[in-house]
Amino acid sequence: MARFLWLTGHDAQEDEPREGHAQEGQAQETQALETPAPEAHAPESHAQDGGVPWAIRMSDGPAHRGRTSRPLAFPERWNPPGGGLPEYRAARKEGTRAFTLWADPHRGQVFAQVVTKSATKGGPAAYEVLGAAGEPLALVTRRPAMKGGLRTRWTVQQTGSRPAVGFKGRPIWWGVWWLSLPLQLLIVIGSILNGGGDPARTPRRTRWRLDRRIVLDFHSGPGAAFELTAVADWWDDRVAASLVALLDSHGGWLGSQWDTAER
């Protein structure tokens, strides 16, 4: 059965549905281990908060009004040792990403972890998805556009499986986007000067194939949100949730991503 995952804001005081999705019970059906977060991976900020402000929700049905969903994981960046958000942003420019996905908003259990295996500024990057005990779950690689191809290439290889390959954006929509680029540049300039305007994002839809079959699909969801459909039932929820966090941290060249927020 297909599963649908997306990133949204989370209020730790009340687990209410976001973006028109209803909550399905209070139990979190996760694969989290009964293992506390490794000390080196504990967050170095947000000490005074009421919980992790982001959630990855999951539903067994496609987007429609009244769809039920439940929180699956709560992603949070790791700041560099001894550093804070400015240092994280500096490392991020080099392609680095570092997240903990918690099983609960109060950081009681680790659900999964994302670490950077290798990265170069403006070039390819490789990210490892790890379990709560540090066991390898998957390797995710990203090759930017114009670095050996016209579109950004994402490869996801779950442990014990062959790699699935996806390309960001459909060719026809890239053509439309490039034709409208002069207008987009004017909107960008206007938004910088006046604080208004909403330039179009670059095409983002990504479909991963294995043996020519679609096994993952990152596509538009409710409103401006994007969601990931795990088409194949063999995907580990921890890998799928980590991929959502990674994809939404590479949202585009305008706007803020969840992992650069103040909290």
Automatic annotation (TrEMBL):
Regions crossing the membrane: 172-195
Region Disordered: start-end pairs: 1-87
Keyword tags: Membrane, Transmembrane, Transmembrane helix
Domain of life: Bacteria
Protein's recorded name: Uncharacterized protein
Species the sequence originates in: Streptomyces melanosporofaciens
